[in-house]
Amino acid sequence: MGLINLLARIKAKRVKASKTKEGELPMPDVINFQDAIDETDGEDRALLIGNGFSVEYFSYSNLLAEAKLEEGGPIKALFDALETVDFEAVVRSMEDAAIVERAYGNEEHADQLAR
Hints:
This protein is mostly helical. Helix content is about 55%, strand content about 0%. The chain is built from six helices and no strands. The protein has helices at about 5-15, 35-40, 60-65, 75-80, 85-105, 105-115. The longest helix is centred in the last third of the chain and has 17 residues, at about 85-105. Mean pLDDT is about 75; it is low at about 15-20.
């Protein structure tokens, strides 16, 4: 069937599903993963996964443990100071710190944080 046709079919079902009584939320017809695999057999495939999908298979705690950051090192200290295991939060804080450093004229330190 091809990925484009499969996506078109899903969209058509969503449009059909959206024709509900006023005030009701539409319920799209969702196909399961195996049906998507079967219908795209022999085609190039791409998978878009939204937030929430990986929760069952992935955790920041496990990622942090696997990163094996040096105890006492600056990155590990930052995770500890922020009281988080969320890599995105740590990256955001480093990006914000680089902005502050630049505002104070500390370009070299800002560049270190931005790396």
